[in-house]
Amino acid sequence: MPSSRAAGQYRATQGEAWDQIALARLSGERRMGEVLACNVEELDALLLGGETAVSLPATGGQSGQSARSGRTRSLPPWERL
């Protein structure tokens, strides 16, 4: 049963990991804990089976623009473009 914090659904592909889902569907791998909190019943799986239903958290928090600017600031000066 999905957590009350879940805001969306996603169908995982065979062999997909939690951090890959957070990176592809949210602002980055750092939000993996939020994805895990919404999918307590699947916590024993490191890699998900095909067509596994995954609940996604609300997209509140950092917007895409502020997340990008945060990544830019974390890069060394010679890699910033």
Summarize the model shown.
This protein is an alpha+beta fold and 81 residues long. 32% of the residues lie in helices and 21% in strands. Mean pLDDT is 78; it is low at 62-70.
Could you characterize the architecture of this molecule?
With 81 residues, this protein is of the alpha+beta class. It has one domain (6-79). Helix content is 32%, strand content 21%. It is built from 3 helices and 4 strands; from the N terminus they run ββααββα. It has helices at 18-25, 32-38, 64-74; strands at 6-12, 16-17, 47-48, 52-57. It has a two-stranded antiparallel ribbon. A two-stranded antiparallel ribbon has the order 2-3. The protein is elongated. Residues 62-70 have low confidence and may be disordered.
